[in-house]
Records
---
Amino acid sequence: MRVLRRGDGGPAVAEIRSTLTALGLLPPVNGVVDEFDPAMEHAVRTFQQQRGLITDGLIGPATYRALRDATYQLGGRPLAYLVSAPITGDDVATLQERLLELGYDAGRPNGVFGAQTEAALRNFQRDYGLTVDGICGPETVRALRQLSPRARGGRPVLLREQERVRRSGPRLTGKRIVIDPGHGAQDTGVSVDGVNESELMWDLARRLEGRMVATGMEALLSRGPDQCPDEAARAQFANEAGADLVLSLHSDANSSPLAQGLACFHFGTGNGATSTLGEAMAGLIQRELTKRTGLRDCGTHPKTWELLRLTRCPAVRIEIGYLSNTEDRTRLSDPAFRDVVAEGIVVAVKRLYLLGENDQPTGSFTFADVLAHELAKAE
Ligand SMILES: [Zn+2]
């Protein structure tokens, strides 16, 4: 699709305006308005902010998809697991949240009807004496509406995620981590003065991989040095690998050369649904790396980006420095600095699995400590 922006017009604009009106973001009007005016741009920005999308006021593929998803309400259409083209929408997210509230593990409420949602739905249907067909039709919707939830807001899945980590124990051995170096091949990502994000992140990924393997983790790279799978393919790779954690490595850029620093992103919507472990992991990496590297702290943020949304395990996207900033770029160009970053990330991952046990002050846990800890556990 063509990206729509302020000043555009036509039937596609009229359609999006009516969606924004239905969502209460534009005032209702008589007749059809098909102009992308400043009021519409403001409404698009508000919508993007609510959904954790990039707030640019443009209608690109991600915003268009989110707008379409937002028009579906539970009961408006039958929902089922379509293997080749999974159904997505707010109605699916509502179904997942209701199932979770009732104690059925429908996975993270990401609005994608996948195999886990179907399995949870079938269990629910069996327990409540409904036709067990894995299809959310009128009968199932009625039953879901009648049952009062035990808890609100999809917390059980998040507790379950945490429980899984607790059960798997504080050791790193056997953990399967997917390292996702951003961009690749023709897509260099940010490129300033001959420094390419794709190459830097590939190098950092290899440094990280080496340390992870040394501590007994299984580290898989989501792409080769000359490949650039799209975000959905990277998520699928992690899901098929049965990853415990996905770490996506990027650097940022800004039109202002003064912008600099480090930020971490985890799955979460503006409506409060969030991946607890993703958020915890993002916080640990953010603290560990700002402490060790001195990069400016730009905080952790919930986002609904494809990779974060489609991975079944906790996923964190790390934006390490701004290549458009001379100071950050100089640091990142130094291999020794990338070693410090890799070490900080390994320690942060270890902290996640320690869950607060044997905590040492941020920045003081060394790679050697992590190794020693693993060896002691192995004896
Ligand atoms: Zn990037």
---
Amino acid sequence: MPRLTWQAAELVTSTPETGTARTLRLRVPGWRGHLAGQHVDVRLTAEDGYSTRRSYSLAGPADGEFLDLTVESVPDGEVSPYLTEIMRPGDQVEIRGPVGGWFVWRPGGDRPVLLVAGGSGIVPLMAMVRARRQAGSDAPFRLVYSVRGPGNVYYADELRRPDPGLDVSYLYTRSVPEGVSRPAGRITQADLAEAGRPAALAPDCYVCGPTGFVETAADLLLALGHAPERIRTERFGPSGG
Ligand SMILES: Cc1cc2nc3c(=O)[nH]c(=O)nc-3n(C[C@H](O)[C@H](O)[C@H](O)COP(=O)(O)OP(=O)(O)OC[C@H]3O[C@@H](n4cnc5c(N)ncnc54)[C@H](O)[C@@H]3O)c2cc1C
């Protein structure tokens, strides 16, 4: 495995996903490719030499020298408001990666997969959904996506489009759209029993989101009988510093 080095990355486009999140398409000459589920470190350096870095998941499978990141602007954050509100096409940051070898999905098999996303934790799971589609994989995928309300869904149009073998269900924590009977609330065992996959099928489970969400969802999967070695987690806690 070659040592990772910092590489220049130029912003090509910045597209809104929700009122607070944007997808950044970066061009990284010489990018060696990556797997769905991996992330990169992004480094910003000020004119006085101060620099800071944060981790961001890759939102899609490798696409030549282009990478997509989706960043939620954290109020008062040091890095995410710059990336989402200030950075303009042509501006550069440095990135290093790809990072991570466990929280990855590789096309190839047809094992069932259960994806459980909380908020921006959808990003690496969407990379898996896209990698599956790109590879023409038959692996049955089920995505359970917990969001505050319908306006907080990333990739909403794409997730609405038919994708045979992919089932998507939403759990709303604060604002429930008309016609949905489940009351607003955090993920429960009953939700995962209903929208997830039976443990007897032994799906590969990938859980990603804020630390508290990931810990709760992983405990619920264990309580439902999923084997610990089938549950992979990625926590989006504060990074860098
Ligand atoms: C492996 C990994 C992958 C990640 N992938 C993504 C991604 O795809 N998209 C994305 O938007 N973020 C992702 N994150 C989170 C990201 O790295 C930053 O932590 C986040 O953007 C906040 O950075 P900031 O500099 O804006 O805020 P900071 O200046 O670091 O923090 C400002 C305030 O916000 C709080 N805070 C920091 N991070 C979070 C958070 N994630 N949620 C809620 N409060 C927070 C801090 O405690 C602090 O009070 C990932 C984190 C990890 C570890």
